Amino acid sequence: MEQGVKHPYVAMLVTGVSLVGIIVSFIFFSRELKHIFLEVDSNPGNLVWLMLLLAISLVTFHMGLAKSLMYILLGFKHFTQRGTNQFLLRQLSAMLSSNAILLGSLSFLIVFAMIAANFSFLYKEIEEANLDKQYPFDIIANINAEQEGSIPLEQAKETIESYMPIDWSKVYNGYSTNERTFHKHTIWQGDKYQDVDMFMKESDVNELLQELGSKPLNLENQFAIFSDMPGIQGADFSEASFNHKGQTYTLSHVVESMPMFLWSYFVIVVPDEVVEGMEISQTAVAITLEEGPFDAQKLQDALSYSYKIEENNYSILSSDYRVKEQRRLYAAAFSAIFIVGALYLAVVFILLAMAILALKILSNLRDDEKKYRLLNRLGVNEELQRKTLAKQIFVFFTFPIVVPICLSIPITIILNQFIDLAGFSAMLNFNIVSVSIVVVIGMIYFLYFMVTFGLTKKYVIQRR
């Protein structure tokens, strides 16, 4: 047994158990993520415990592997008898065993850096996609005429025209029967939910879709479900139907990526005649402006009003009109701070990991020089010594990064799952970003390896 490695079989067991812990953490993280999006009684705090399990498993996995891998390889006699392999394995066995905890901790830092980098770019992409979903037009309004101080549509249009000419506008309604028949098929059911089924006319929806450049609906004795909420994925409307004037209407299809046309979890789009006799529940306006710069913040302020809460004796600033460009500027400012912060942490963690590895190698130069001098006395030529030293440093450098690179696959799968659950699968593909992050980390890592090898080689081999 290799000197300095105690209880190798226990180390193998720790490695196996830790590997199971890593796999389990990702599997349950994926399940919990789906549960959070599609269920009401979810607990996001479980994700923190799964991240903790991943961190502990990564550290213990590298501890066990560092103390058992070289012991296993030394058992292959045909391999160890070739060239300087036995010398190399014994060198690595001592280095990995003495730095096992450090290597495991660095591996977790690298994984965390990859997650932070991926999530920062993901946040940016989702922010832009979500903006297009929540603000399909330049200005969206849900007019609350009963609210004191609310700005009438015609007055609002005059205000808007003073900033930028209106190119197209559409007033449309949401209709209701004050029933919750369709809500019973969704997660938004029970006494704590007071929302009623919301209907829209097919002609209104088609005009809105046409302005957005989307394919219009063609409903004949059918209805469609539109929603921008992930929870609609868990709904089963296959048996849903209703009658109107003796005609039965059945489900045509469900659209899970609808832009936000009305304030509602989902909208039932029906042929125009179906809404006859229903009461108007919401009145909305979609406005497209001519292209050109304008002061979006001032326009949003001009379309805002305040109303007083009598019982609490304070005023609230509100607006029925939402200006897309103002929201874009606000989101860009916030996302810039978030992305820079996340990327800064990722870069710091990566550079810290590489710097620590390099310092560990450089701190052992005197010891390595003695051992390679012995190797020289045994008749090993300088070229083979350089190759052996390169392999030694390369394995030590790559030991804490191999697992994080492998974990980039499940990380990407979970991020794509997040995109799908959030309703952006048709708008985003995150695979290229994830691959690019791994490539960049690999290039920086390789650069550090080359610099460290160059310095070590000069001292250990060429100094004699």
UniProtKB/TrEMBL annotation:
InterPro entries, per database record: ABC-4_Integral_Memb_Prot (IPR052536)
Taxonomy, superkingdom: Bacteria
Residue ranges of the TM segments: 9-29, 49-74, 100-123, 329-362, 393-419, 431-455
Keyword Membrane: yes
Keywords: Membrane, Transmembrane, Transmembrane helix
Protein name: ABC transporter permease
